[in-house]
Amino acid sequence: MLDTLYPVVMGLIYYYRRLASAVYWLIDSRLKRYSRHCFKEAGIMINTDDKGPGNLRIHNEEFYHRLAIEKTLGLGEMYMEGWWDCDRLDVFFTKILKHGLFKTLTPFPQDKLFHYLQFHVFNLQTSARSWEVADKHYNLGNELFGSFLDSEMNYS
């Protein structure tokens, strides 16, 4: 039954997120104000002359839209892609955690429901499935591993 239900639920989540993305574009200025307010409440200033530790410098104005859609995962990926930076990541994340900002930026209950369905009900990373994954990834033959390991087949 899960084999049938999983693609249906994941499809619904996909289309919900597409719809949410369109709505977020429509309310872009409000979304930006709301996000800035949430960060300010946590003591994090955005694009100010104040170079205080933990303050954000946003380099891509689509930051707010992507944050609304992808939440904390998007925040980390945007940092890796250079969309934002700050001088002290430790201070930034301490403020986020201390003030529960990760909860504030996920205000819609359906987002929490979809997250629960996606990662708890339909979690494909089970111990039973790990054998299948290992078989597919590690029983590929020495030619593949020889292409990136040293002459003694060791990781460097």
Automatic annotation (TrEMBL):
Molecular function terms from GO: methyltransferase activity
The entry's keywords: Lipid metabolism, Membrane, Methyltransferase, S-adenosyl-L-methionine, Transferase, Transmembrane, Transmembrane helix
GO biological process, one term: lipid metabolic process
Membrane spanning residue stretches: 6-27
PANTHER family: CYCLOPROPANE-FATTY-ACYL-PHOSPHOLIPID SYNTHASE
Protein known as: Cyclopropane-fatty-acyl-phospholipid synthase
Organism: Allacma fusca
